[in-house]
Specification:
The structure holds three protein chains of three kinds. By secondary structure, chain A is α+β, with helices and mostly antiparallel strands. Chain A has helices at residues 30-36, 83-86, 90-93, 118-126, and strands at residues 9-10, 15-20, 23-28, 39-43, 50-51, 56-62, 66-70, 75-80, 102-106. Chain C contains 14 helices and 17 strands. The chains are: A alpha+beta, B alpha/beta, C alpha/beta. Chains in contact: A-B, A-C, B-C.
């Protein structure tokens, strides 16, 4: 099976969240980047934007596909990965590391209970992933 | 032929000229005396300086890097790449058409207005509609015109509907045009046979639905057998039914959108009526409507009174204008020429032969490629390269290999509901010999996928360039030429 | 039927291989209730020679600009069209090709579009141009929709009454769906009233739209309008005449965010108003909001330069209802005409076209206003078009001069009732001094 770190939480829309205290770092999974192919553009919200759980916060584009990005948790965007503007390929090369997209100051930490564990996410993928 | 890799800018040489301008026969005056200097350009634009012969040779060489219908079979599904008759071109270039100013007094444009009036009548008869506007510039603008008319119609009846239903197999322009017209798009599922899912339609139809937009025959090349039932279901809810006319070629003289219950349809003159595609346009997308939508047609409408033709602007319920003038008139002349050349029997023969050619091709290729929705098909058929995909050969690979074998490629990855789609439309103007040669090439590729996939992955090798890096183009957009810095 | 290749013997043979007894078998999915039981009621087919006779008769009832003297403008102009354009665009490899979705077999079209984008960017002074929109009016409408989305949903368009009224109507039709409001700014002596503009612009303004040279031929103070516009955080849309830009300051140097225009003057025939050429250019920042196709340079597998359609995720075939525009087919062949035109005219020629039109228009204006009772309606500087105020009904003057094979201009009453005694006159580089003098002579008789 693929590469799905156990310390992360996942969504059925293929985003991951890493809890860092009251903040969550967010990106897309190895599966998502592989399905998309070469990422050519990532559109992210501005710092200060409020996001809600499972509502779109941006888009990721390959040459011939566009996917909405969904917020794993509600809160305020406190950091975005500016590096992705010039190097969208980081999403392909290092989806859980340099390919991170944003950091959310989480407003409702209990929402994390609704996210999938690595094992649940892998099972979800095994059933077709959608 | 050795490669040619120049851009016109790279042929430039200071002082070279390629024009012959009229004499300065009025008293010479310095622009600085006529205009305040802030209006005068400080530095000239960086444009090429080339001779007329440079230009002729350059663009002739560039043209040789293209496949066109004149040079290659173009089995592009959904695009109806048929022969573009040469007489159409001669007629469109007659001075009275090509050099007629759009704001010339109507008395000086009677021939043009007559042509437009007659073409409108002809298209209305072909589609079983009551009135036609020739104004939309292409299919997508025809769709926008149609949906805006539907919107105006509902509003005039005091109904503020919010949704338009579009099947998942639709052309991308359908949802896009609908969204611009201010509606929410609701996607309808296709059933396992590729038709509209009537259960899903039943569930989705309510008083909020302004229109259903569908393509007939659909984008799988299939005729929707329950079409009469579908339009009845819609009308019962006050929903208008729109036909995307991209595939009209298949039904000319056999059946008519108006008789199938449609309230609006558009025509793609650059598909069905032989106006050239020109590398991506211009097209023309007239739109036909039933009488209840006529008050909403774009302005102006061409009218005939006694023996004079005129542009009628006094249409208070009109959706307004979509183009500055009256339509892509040059394309209208070509379509008119074609309809007069063909006559009623000729147009019927078009549909018959388009259907025959597509079914023949489908039959020959069926053993080699998966056919998710078996026929009989209408004017096109949609195969899936999923069998080849398991061998590592995708629909795109098949397309690229065809280029090496002397054919343009079918439409690929459309409609979206077919995996690894290869959508093939032969049109009526191709001969059996050409279809056989194409089928032989497709069969060869299917065999190569099993025995020698590398030759497919290496394709194309005979084209001016080989497979291009689309990712680089999108990541680092280079959208204009700049001089190389020394 | 000469456009259908298969013989009846072949048709039978094909039916046999399909396993169908007749064509009727293939039509079985079409309900018989919905079938047309008669032939289409259309005129019978014409043989080529008869058809040509018929078409020539129709064409002869129209005013061929080469057979009359044309002073008509208003968004379509009788400019010089060099001969090679028609020959080159008529090559079947250009003419009968599809949209270049298979780039390896479409490098000719892709290269010409890349050249076109470069030329338009140079002329307008902008960073990037798209591959074309239908016409100047729909380009303007697309620009308005783009400003609406780029300003995150601001819903007000502040538009000058100097913008071609036919184009304003198209903006209004496109504005209907997204419910954009249009606030019109009056003109003052031929140019946009900047004080009124300043009052109109607010935090709700998506775009300020002006045209220069405007509908009346006058030049606008684009920079001043742009400053007002940007003060409100809106996008500055400038409609222009690309033919003028060999000579005039490009909108890109005057603060424009989006430049659109009718490119018909760049080698595209009048053709009764279509097909035309919608020019569309903008800044690098707004690339991903652009409507329509874009061509970009890249390399092939062997590292060789090549061209592709790029940033396609903006477009309807991928983004569907969320696309930046619904446009698919554009006017590639007209863009090719413009590309060849600009190549032929080049750096010097386009400036000369501008100088000639400017000089001839001013010569004409001067001579015409020597006629008693005829005067220039506005004093703002103009390029190749100007508004004459006449002592007699412009409609009647136009009718009378048409009999003398002079298309005198466009009566402005249908566009603006306050200008009911006015005529819009355009003078391109093609008009000769003799033609202008003839016009002066005929007009002085007509208004005497």
């Amino acid at each position: 099976m693929g590469n799905y770190p156990a310390d992360l939480k996942y969504t059925k829309e293929h985003e991951w969240a890493r809890m860092e205290g009251n903040r969550a770092r967010v990106g897309i999974t190895a599966y998502a980047q592989e399905q998309l192919g070469d990422v050519v553009f990532v559109e992210l919200p501005k710092v200060g934007t409020k996001v809600s759980q499972m509502q779109p916060f941006g888009v990721v584009e390959s040459v011939k596909a566009v996917s909405d990005l969904f917020a794993p948790l509600s809160g305020e965007v406190v950091e975005v990965n500016a590096e992705l503007v010039k190097k969208p390929e980081l999403v392909n090369q290092d989806p859980y590391g340099k390919g991170w997209m944003l950091v959310i100051q989480v407003s409702s930490p209990q929402e994390a209970n609704a996210l999938l564990t690595a094992q649940q996410y892998e099972e979800f993928l095994a059933k077709g992933g959608h | 032929m050795p490669g040619y890799d120049k851009l016109i800018f790279e042929l430039s040489s200071p002082g070279r000229i390629g024009y012959s301008l009229p004499a300065a026969d009025v008293p010479a005056s310095d622009p600085k005396e006529l205009l305040p200097s802030k209006h005068l350009r400080a530095t000239p634009p960086e444009l090429p300086e080339v001779s007329e012969f440079d230009v002729v040779r350059h663009y002739s060489r560039l043209s040789q890097m293209n496949y066109g219908v004149d040079t290659h079979f173009y089995p592009l599904g959904s695009c109806t790449m048929k022969y573009n008759p040469k007489i159409n071109e001669d007629m469109a270039r007659l001075g009275g058409f090509a050099r007629l100013h759009p704001l010339a007094p109507e008395a000086c444009a009677q021939g043009a207005l007559q042509l437009m009036w007659e073409l409108g009548q002809d298209l209305a008869e072909i589609a079983g509609m009551d009135a036609v506007s020739l104004q939309p510039a292409a299919g997508a603008q025809g769709e926008l015109a149609g949906v805006l008319m539907i919107r105006a119609y509902h509003l005039a009846r005091g109904e503020r509907r919010t949704k338009v239903l579009v099947p998942d197999s639709a052309h991308g322009t359908n949802p896009a045009s609908t969204a611009i017209a201010g509606y929410r798009v609701v996607q309808l599922k296709s059933d396992s046979e590729g038709g509209a899912d009537l259960m899903d339609l039943e569930r989705s139809l309510d008083e909020e639905v302004a229109a259903l937009m569908i393509t007939v025959p659909n984008t799988l090349g299939l005729f929707e057998p329950r079409i009469l039932e579908i339009s009845e279901m819609c009308h019962a809810k006050g929903t208008q039914v729109y036909m995307d006319g991209a595939n009209l070629n298949a039904i000319l003289g056999i059946t008519r959108p108006g008789d199938l219950g449609f309230d609006v349809c558009h025509f793609n003159l650059h598909k069905t009526f032989t106006t050239p595609h020109g590398g991506g346009g211009p097209g023309a997308g007239p739109v036909g409507v039933k009488a209840h939508l006529e008050p909403f047609l774009p302005t102006p409408v061409v009218t005939k009174t006694d023996d004079a033709y005129a542009l009628d602007w006094k249409r208070p319920q009109s959706i307004g204008k979509l183009q500055a003038f009256w339509g892509n008139f040059g394309m209208l002349v070509r379509a008119y020429t074609y309809i007069r050349t063909m006559g009623p029997d000729g147009l019927r023969a078009v549909a018959d032969n388009a259907i025959l050619n597509a079914n023949y091709l489908m039959k020959r290729l069926e053993p080699y490629y998966d056919l998710p929705h078996p026929g009989p098909c209408m004017h096109e058929c949609v195969f899936s390269a999923r069998r080849q995909k398991k061998l590592g050969v995708s629909a795109m690979d098949v397309a690229k290999r065809l280029l090496d074998l002397g054919f343009y490629a079918p439409s690929t990855y459309f409609p979206l509901i077919v995996e690894e789609a290869l959508m093939i439309e032969p049109t009526e103007t191709e001969s059996k010999e050409t279809l056989d040669a194409f089928c032989d090439a497709m069969i060869q590729i299917a065999r190569e996928a099993e025995s020698n996939p590398q030759v497919i992955h290496d394709a194309p090798q005979t084209t001016p360039v080989r497979r291009l890096d689309q990712t680089l183009a999108a990541r680092q957009p280079d959208l204009r030429w700049r001089p190389r810095r020394a | 039927m000469r456009y259908i290749s298969n013989t009846s013997a072949q048709q039978k043979e094909m039916l046999r291989s399909i396993g169908a007894a007749s064509l009727e078998d293939l039509l079985s999915p079409i309900p018989s209730k919905a079938r047309l039981s008669r032939p289409l009621n259309l005129p019978a087919a014409l043989a080529e020679a008869d058809l040509i006779r018929h078409m020539r008769r129709l064409a002869s009832r129209n005013a061929d600009a080469d057979e009359v003297v044309c002073f008509l403008g208003g968004g379509a102009y009788d400019h010089y069209i060099p001969s090679p354009i028609n020959h080159l665009i008529s090559r079947g490899e250009f003419f009968t090709a599809y949209t270049p979705y298979q780039p390896e077999a479409s490098q000719g079209t892709l290269r010409t579009i890349y050249e076109y984008q470069t030329m338009i960017a140079e002329l307008t002074g902008m960073d990037v141009a798209n591959a074309s929109i239908y016409d100047g009016a729909s380009s303007l409408a697309e620009a308005a929709l783009m400003a609406h989305s780029a300003t995150e949903g601001r819903a007000e368009l502040v538009i000058s009454r100097g913008v071609n009224p036919l184009h304003r109507q198209v903006v209004a039709a496109y504005a209907e769906g997204p419910a954009l409001r249009m606030k019109e700014i009056p003109i003052s002596d031929g140019a946009t009233d900047l004080a009124a503009l300043k009052k109109a612009v607010s935090g709700k303004t998506a775009a300020v739209i002006i045209q220069s040279p405007n509908f009346f031929g006058c030049l606008e103070d684009v920079q001043a309008a742009a400053d007002i516009c940007h003060g409100g955080g809106a996008l500055m849309i400038v409609a222009t005449d690309p033919v003028s830009l060999g000579l005039l300051t490009p909108p890109g140097a005057l603060g424009a965010d989006i430049v659109v225009g009718e490119g018909q003057g760049l080698g595209v025939p009048l053709s009764y108003g279509g097909p035309n050429l919608g020019v569309f250019a903008t800044t690098t920042d707004l690339i991903r909001r652009l409507p329509g196709r874009l061509v970009g340079a890249t390399v092939d597998r062997d590292g060789k330069r090549g061209f592709v359609l790029t940033l396609q995720t903006r477009e309807q075939h991928i983004r569907r209802e969320k696309a930046t525009s619904n446009i698919c087919t554009n006017v590639a062949l007209c863009a090719l005409m413009a590309t060849i035109y600009v190549a032929l005219l080049g750096k010097q020629g386009l400036r000369k076209v501008g100088e000639l039109a400017l000089a001839k228009a001013h010569y004409a204006a001067e001579a015409l206003t020597k006629i008693p009772g005829v005067r220039l309606r506005f004093t703002a500087p103009f390029f190749k078009e100007f508004v004459l105020q006449l002592p007699k009904s412009p409609e009647r003057v136009v009718k009378r001069l048409a009999k003398e094979k002079i298309l005198a201009g466009i009566p402005l009453k249908p566009f603006d009732r306050t200008l009911k005694d006015c005529l819009l006159v355009a003078v391109t580089e093609k008009r000769t001094r003799q033609e202008i003098d003839m016009f002066v002579q005929a007009l002085s008789q007509a208004v005497a």
